[in-house]
Specification:
The chain has 22 helices and seven strands. With 497 residues, it is mainly alpha-helical.
């Protein structure tokens, strides 16, 4: 193998967005690029992480592999590409060094880009730092979770080995391995945690801040409020995003500048149009009966009926615990609802017997978890510090638990969570498609139907406001317009007259 000094590289590569120095060019370019030059050619071997027994670097398919295995491997690779939303690889710090590699073909670079973009997407969702432990976790949870061909595992192990070696060389040079978008997302997430923001709010703000940093391209432009105004204009003019999306992006940028950058006054000089009023979608009782009858899973059907019968929001329904259901008083206590407020709403008497049966079945699941010494259910952080063993007690167990345990995305603890929102919403959509309902059915339609039907039955607006948990009665007044619209249904058109 020729020495590093004998290699000719042209312009210096970039590590962490900075061009290599003159001394680096004399030594053969940036440290990460020197590793690419010193890597063995395709078909050679290299020492990598202990992810797989074989660490041979195979940039192309094994010629000795059978045609069937090769075809299956190609189909598997295509399916992997469809299984995740690949980010733009140019946002990552390893992209410049990978694209400048002289000993990799275009096909090799495409394979490297695919796997490393997949890894970066998984790492961002898991809130993990760019380090060896993250790569090992990705290998075990994503790569080894499915059956792979031998050549595929060897090829992917070589790619991960290249990435780990790149991390090591960057650390030796004191360079940050995280992209600008990743650093901004992490800073927003930490600031949101200090402020006590909800987990989903931190994810949303971090995602918008990362997209803005990727669009800005440099740290100085990220800190420039004029660039932020241009980006918000870009969202409105070029992307044509909805009003709620514009407002969400604006709030994320204001949080970035105030709570992360420490600016006291932030005026992005953005004036949004007044939000138009929308009439909620309401299902009549016949449509509700058809919808409930088409829900196949008994737990999902009970969840839908309870959401309609009690007027619950989706998150309030999923996070119900045993102590929140009072069968004797026929009440449901909503804890930490929207605006972090508690309230009490009605429990349908027709569901009490089925709820009692479900709670008895959940008791068996709870006792089995205790025998297996599983971690307790999730608790709010402040309550978990005050009562560290409360999650292992029966009153805190979920009303609608998952059938299996899973890893908490925030703490990493393996425990039993409540039913996933997407699973329940998918069951509702599938049931609505099997019926003749022509309306767009969502879980929130059940809450709209609850409010509208109570108003039609003569419930006063203040009582309805309390049951729904609205902070302002004007929010509840929207349902009076729905009732008025329904009451005008008997008007005869002059064309018919």
């Amino acid at each position: 193998m020729s020495s590093v000094r004998e290699q000719s590289y042209g312009r210096p590569a970039k590590v962490n967005g900075l061009a290599g120095s003159t001394a680096q060019r004399r030594r053969g370019g940036s440290p990460a690029r020197r590793y690419v030059a010193e890597s063995p050619p395709a078909g050679g071997s290299q020492q990598g992480p202990k992810l797989h027994e074989s660490k041979s670097h195979e940039s192309k398919l094994h010629k000795s592999s059978p045609d069937v295995a090769m075809a299956a491997g190609k189909v598997s690779a295509r399916n992997e590409r469809r299984s995740f939303s690949a980010p733009n690889p140019e946002q990552f710090e390893w992209w410049a060094d990978l694209s400048a590699a002289r000993d990799l073909t275009r096909h090799d670079k495409a394979q490297y880009t695919f796997l490393l973009s997949w890894f970066e997407s998984w790492r961002a969702k898991s809130h993990l730092a760019p380090e060896r432990a993250s790569a090992v976790g990705f290998w075990r949870s994503q790569v080894q979770s499915k059956e792979r061909t031998s050549w595929q595992e060897k090829q992917w192990a070589a790619i991960i080995s290249w990435y780990l070696r790149w991390l090591e060389l960057c650390q030796q040079q004191g360079k940050c391995c995280e992209s600008l978008a990743g650093r901004v997302r992490s800073a927003v997430d930490h600031a949101g945690a200090r402020r006590g923001l909800a987990y989903r709010t931190r994810l949303t703000y971090g995602g918008w801040a990362a997209r803005y940093a990727l669009w800005a391209g440099s740290r100085s432009r990220v800190l420039d409020t004029e660039v932020a105004r241009e980006w918000l204009s870009h969202l409105v003019v070029d992307r044509a995003v909805a009003f709620s999306t514009q407002k969400q992006a604006l709030n994320a940028l204001v949080f970035l500048y105030k709570d992360v950058c420490g600016m006291e006054e932030v005026d992005l000089q953005v004036r949004f149009r007044k939000r138009a009023k929308r009439i909620p979608v309401v299902l009549n009782r016949t449509e509700l009966a058809q919808l409930f009858a088409e829900i196949k899973d008994p737990m999902h059907r009970l969840m839908a009926e309870l959401q309609y019968g009690s007027g619950l929001r989706l998150r309030e329904l999923l996070q119900l615990r045993v102590k929140d259901i009072d069968l004797e008083a026929s009440t449901v206590t909503v804890r930490c609802g929207k605006g972090d407020k508690d309230r009490v709403t009605v429990l349908p008497r027709s569901l009490q017997a089925r709820l009692e049966t479900l709670i008895e079945e959940n008791r068996k699941v709870y006792l089995a978890d205790r025998l297996e010494r599983q971690a307790g259910v999730y608790l709010p952080p402040a309550l978990a510090r005050k009562m560290p063993r409360a999650g292992e007690r029966w009153p805190w167990f979920w009303i609608f638990p998952q059938g299996k345990t899973s890893r908490d995305p925030e703490s990493g603890v393996v425990r039993r969570h409540h039913v996933v929102a997407g699973v329940y919403c998918h069951a509702l959509r599938a049931a609505s498609q099997r019926t003749c309902i022509s309306k767009r059915v969502t879980s929130h339609c059940l809450r709209h139907s609850f409010a509208t039907h109570l108003l039609e039955a003569g419930t006063d607006i203040r009582t309805l406001q309390s049951l729904l948990g609205h902070a302002d009665v004007t929010t509840t007044m929207i349902y009076t317009h729905v009732v008025e619209r329904l009451s005008r249904a008997g008007v005869i058109s002059p064309l018919d007259g």
